[in-house]
Amino acid sequence: MTDAPGIAFQILQSVFVVFAAPLLLGWANQCRAWLQNRSAPSILLPYYTLAKLFHKDAVIASNASPLFRITPYVLFGCMWLAAGIVPVLATDLPFAPAADIIALVGVFALARVFSALAAMDIGTSFGGLGARREMLIGFLAEPAMLMILFTAAFISGSTQLNTIVETLARREFAIYPSLAFAAVAFLMVLLAENARIPIDNPTTHLELTMVHEAMILEYSARHLALIEWAVAIKLFAYTTIGIALFVPWGIAAAGDWGALPLAFAALAAKLALAGAGLAFLETLLAKLRLFLAPEFLSTAFLLGVLGMLTHFLMQG
Amino acid sequence: MEEHRVTELALHTQPVAGAMPAFRATVGAAELRGLCEQTRAQKARLVALWGSDETTRGGGYALHLALALGSGLLWLTLPLAREHPRYPSIADIYPCANRMQRATYDLLGIHAQDSPDQRKWVRHRAWPGGVFPLRKAFPIGTSFPPSDDRYPFVKVEGEGVHEIPVGPVHAGTIEPGHFRFSIVGEKILRLEERLCYTHKGIEKLFENMTLAEGARLAGRVSGDSTVAYAWAYAMAVEGATGTEPPSRALGLRAILLELERIANHLGDLGYLGNDVALSFGFFQFWRLKEDLLRLQGELFGHRYLMDQVVPGGVARDLPRDQAERLLARLEQIQSEVVALKAIYDDHAGAQDRFVMTGQVLPELAEKMGLVGFAGRASGIKHDLRVDYPVLPYQQAGVRMATHTRGDVAARVSVRFDEMFESMRLVRTLASQLAPGAIRAPLADCIPGKCGVGWVEGWRGEVLIALESADANRIHRAHAHDPSWQNWPLLERAVLGNIVPDFPLINKSFNLSYSGQDL
């Protein structure tokens, strides 16, 4: 699928994802403010924040190594690549065969390794603290994520995300109990991987409680902007993975320009619901005590395994 | 003046005039430790320890102790020599004396002998060692080139043990303080506080003021307890001058004090929600606090009620129609707090974070001298409004809120109970307000008179002890914050907890940095 419309679709999706990602974050923040009886900030606030950060001069610790400088670019690149692989608007994108679900988890892991290394690079105590906690969460979230993706893969018989989505979206409507388990597990992994409540609190100022924020305390200006943007793309990518796996209906096929408006509308509606749902969860829940995070993620892993077993039982 | 014999001790004392029951006695250095052991055995707590320079009155220096006995406050004075002033340390009898003794040395050069901890406490870089700014000979306004600020923290060693230094500059808009954690993994093995980054020279400033002028300064010792400090100061001045404030003023003071308690508990309960990422609670409590502060701003001209309590009475009256507005607002706040309390109580996530976190067991609290609402949450049943009720608390009758588990949840529970009780008190006090004047003229004071102000602020007991000089001036005014006693307990409360729970535990106490660093 390297024809011109396919490439056009690929470019369209990649650009769309990068520029639409902060909107999802802005929407979730807006919903959260409403749920807390506050007047909400502009939905465009994440864009203003990025613009502000890009206009500032970067302050970098004198003992920072090149690793510290390149990490924001690596993070941004990883997240952009991930968002390019996931079928957001259309299936059969030219990039799609580049990586299957295992490689996708690998891309997220690469970003994690870089952010943890960069956090320890300068040698502040909070950086080390954050990196340590991030790894504690990561090593449990990754296998859980794989289990969820495998559950979906078994249904379609392929680890290609593209094929999975094609299978789920185009075939006759059927209820897969295994996917119900996987969906719950996926939600838990999404919250943990994106540093959301109940695992982490993206709005806290308390250094000692931070996970993700503690790792990026030393970043400023354009570096921080890239990281913040990567965070937004990551949330967007995860949300679209969830949409692709569990509610894929309405997605267009690459090159099918006629289906595109519907695909856009469907995606916008699903993302709006997802953002509101995230805000709802974050308003209801309190942050877990740090040592309950492994339990939370083990539960996600267990649900993922249960989903897979259910699939075999139903097949058998 | 008549001699008075304190029933509990074989000690001749003289009563200190004023609203609170207080007695004063002079002891020699040889008797100090014996006396302290005796008072400790009788479960009398150490309220404050401070020093004074008596060289302008023909003496040397003096050490002062305030002890809370069953019958009232015992103010002990220990005269010290001009050369090498020293006294036997009592930090082994009263652990909370440790930091106060070190501060007394930093400020006045009075040495506590045989104390194992001789490190500086108040002094950072503003003045060098060997210079004592609270001595009368030290000219106010002197500045020094920044000196060395090394401080020997206690090292914890072992496999995998490392330190996290936090502060003094924090990410939030809070006061400066340095916390040195020794941790293994996420578990806290030791916490050491290094405070006193907020030295303002308040006690030195007092000595250049008249009794009337000092009121504004006293109200600024710790901003969140301004009513408690202003009342304590006014009480001390009224005692020293023999001024009788009108009873309407006393009723209004109590209303102000309870409003301060309500506002602070509202804010902290919001913060506790925020610290467990329950922002809903944070915004609701802060909305309610803001509602109250705005009304306070309208009714009293100051959101945080500064300068409302003045020596001789209060600055502003509360007419009936305004009192009714206040009561209506409190009624509305109360109904919302009831709903919010139910949400906090039923929220599994929040309760999981609160329960058994940052526990201070009653035994430890008793030994270390925990005070205030934190003490009452650890089974220390003391409240000045109950133990020695002054007017108007005598008529209103305060119901003490207590708990015994001593964890964050217990402190939350006591805060809720105290808030509801304060709302009831405001209603009762407002209905019982006597008609008449709100302020009496301040009588003149003869030199060498002393006065004591002792008030149960929202955080705990606030003490002002003062002595007059000639021409209505202040010879020495000491302001004591309950944070002196409670900060060391925070170090103990976090032991065995995990690092990310520290902010929550810290906030459940919410101690003053400024109040214990004048």
Structure, briefly:
The complex is a heterodimer of chains A (316) and B (518). Chain A is mainly α and 316 residues long.
Structural class by sheet pairing and helices of chain B? alpha+beta
Cα-based radius of gyration of chain B, to the nearest Å: 22 Å
Q: Give the second-level CATH assignment, the architecture of the largest domain in chain B.
A: Orthogonal Bundle
What is the fourth-level CATH superfamily of the largest domain in chain B?
Answer: Cytochrome-c3 Hydrogenase, chain B
> Under the CATH scheme, which class of the largest domain in chain B?
Mainly Alpha
Total individual domains of chain A: 1
Poorly predicted spans of chain B: none
Poorly predicted sequence stretches spanning 5 or more consecutive residues of chain A: none
Main β-sheet, spatial strand arrangement of chain B: 1-2-3-6-5-4
Largest interface: A-B, 28 and 29 residues
Report the helical percentage of chain B.
Answer: 25-40%
Percent helix among the residues of chain A? Answer: 55-70%
Beta fraction of chain B = 15-25%
Could you state the order of secondary-structure elements of chain A as H and E?
Answer: HHHEHHHHHHEHH
Number of domains of chain B: 3
Largest sheet of chain A: 2 strands, parallel
User: Strands of the biggest beta sheet of chain A: in what spatial order?
Assistant: 1-2
Average residue pLDDT of chain B? 92
Summed up, the helix count of chain A is 11
Please report the distance between the alpha carbons of the first and last residues of chain A.
36 Å
